[in-house]
């Protein structure tokens, strides 16, 4: 059985959880988006590297995303596309949570890449978000002085939930001190828009073929969290973004569990997934 070893105090903490002596930290709802574009003969995906100073997933290459802002569930947010209720059915969430998840996915993607999955009520999609006024709004969203509803309303825009597709659902293992209940989405880079190195929680960004990213991780050049690694492995099978978006996914919830393997505490998945060869 593969998995990630839990040495020292972390292993003892895991034993305490298994024994019912320690209560796991609750998982916070979160959303993340694998942003895709056409490459040379394969799909390319956008990734950012979290700063080494970050408390969670420091140094890891991840998709844009983050936890829900309570205001993400605001019904005042202008909306176009599949309803919150429809998203709730896909992700097995109540309507309010589903609304927050989709809004967080769009908001976080804009905050962390500069790409906005929104458009006008007439059906067009925003084509350019690179001006100084857009940057001022992006920074205001990050520091929470501007709500997503006010941001869209002031610009006469609607959230385009039809630009997103559901992909996966991962919950952080119970042994972790910071836990997230994360729904994964995929989306195509809108025509005319481009990603930017926007800083903040990241110190590097890149576009790359999923298979190349996995190879770099296997060679020890970069660090990937297990959900990111598995998602990249799934996306590596596609040559066209349209094929990814057309894929019908049954959303299965994965939560790596704590187990004792040959006297050593480990994080494992029930299907024997080896966390990128660990």
From TrEMBL:
Record keywords, A-Z: Hydrolase, Magnesium, Manganese, Metal-binding
Listed Gene3D superfamilies: Nucleoside Triphosphate Pyrophosphohydrolase
Cite the SUPFAM superfamilies for this sequence.
Nudix
Q: Which cofactor does it need?
A: Mg(2+); Mn(2+)
Could you tell me the superkingdom of the organism this chain comes from? Bacteria
Instruction: Please verify whether the record's keywords include Manganese.
Output: yes
Q: Name one GO molecular function term.
A: hydrolase activity, acting on acid anhydrides, in phosphorus-containing anhydrides
Stretches assigned to the Nudix hydrolase domain: 26-230
PROSITE patterns to which the protein is assigned, alphabetical: NUDIX
Q: Could you tell me what this protein is called?
A: 8-oxo-dGTP pyrophosphatase MutT (NUDIX family)
- Organism field: Streptosporangium becharense
